[in-house]
Amino acid sequence: MELYLNTTSPYARVACILLMEKGLISKVTLKWCDPWADDAELLKVNPAGRVPALVTNEGITLSESTLLAVYLDGAFPKTPMLPDNQRAQVLHLAGLGQNLMEAAFNIVIARKHDGHKANESMLGQRRWRALHRLLPQLESELGDTSPAVSLHLGEITTAVALAYLDFRLPEAVWQRACPKLGAWHAGIEARASFQQTAFV
Ligand SMILES: N[C@@H](CCC(=O)N[C@@H](CS)C(=O)NCC(=O)O)C(=O)O
């Protein structure tokens, strides 16, 4: 398999962690690229020009981090990321995590192109409000839990979204309002798959 990725994409980091947690990373050739530079090889694999993109052993091209998780669990059932016995709950959490990631990512991209005035725009303010609703929700759902030995997609997506906030939007200082979520996140960040994929 081949995985197209870059070092700052939260979505690509989710894909990489999925492959590590499933014990598949050694079977994957990592294709580092810059999705913002219309990388020709990436465009052949994903015409949308976005990472992550995966090429299967059969040469089928896949995009969208959540769909990669669905594919990987089907093709390599060991260590499921969407375990059957908790599917709805895992998808629920993955949805919250994905929404947090998208709110943060859209704020960052809007700023990159329009500067800090993007924060004051109607869309910018909607994204910040979404962030401030999602964080306490996650605190109430995860704050009193500790991740199991085997992680699932919901935990991975949420933990990567929180790490992306620290990386790109440190002014969110979410740990102050959500200390239990901060402790939960610190526990996951200590895992090898998170340490080895830290944002740089
Ligand atoms: N919904 C997609 C989002 C992927 C995405 O937005 N990737 C960004 C990097 S973080 C990208 O490649 N952006 C380049 C572009 O939009 O042209 C997923 O879950 O994989």
Fold and architecture overview:
The structure is a single chain. With 200 residues, this protein is of the alpha+beta class. The chain has two domains: 74 residues, 3-Layer(aba) Sandwich (Glutaredoxin); 108 residues, Glutathione S-transferase Yfyf (Class Pi), Chain A, domain 2. Helix content is 56%, strand content 7%. It has a four-stranded mixed beta sheet, with helices on one face. Helix 1 links the parallel strand 1 and strand 2. The longest helix is centred in the middle third of the chain and has 28 residues. The radius of gyration is 17 Å and the shape is globular. The two termini are 24 Å apart. The model has no long low-confidence stretch (mean pLDDT 96). InterPro entries: Glutathione-S-Trfase_C_sf, Glutathione_S-Trfase_N, GST_Omega/HSP26, Thioredoxin-like_sf. This is Glutathione S-transferase N-terminal domain-containing protein.
Distinct ligands, ions and cofactors found in the model: glutathione
Rg, nearest Å: 17 Å
CATH topology of the largest domain: Glutathione S-transferase Yfyf (Class Pi), Chain A, domain 2
What would CATH call the architecture of the largest domain?
Up-down Bundle
> How much helix, percentage-wise, in residues?
55-70%
Could you state the order of secondary-structure elements as H and E?
EHEHEEHHHHHHH
Give the strand order, joined by hyphens, for the main sheet: 2-1-3-4
Oligomer: single chain
Domain GST N-terminal: 1-80
Pfam families: GST_C_2 (PF13410), GST_N_3 (PF13417)
InterPro entries: Glutathione-S-Trfase_C_sf, Glutathione_S-Trfase_N, GST_Omega/HSP26, Thioredoxin-like_sf
Protein name: Glutathione S-transferase N-terminal domain-containing protein
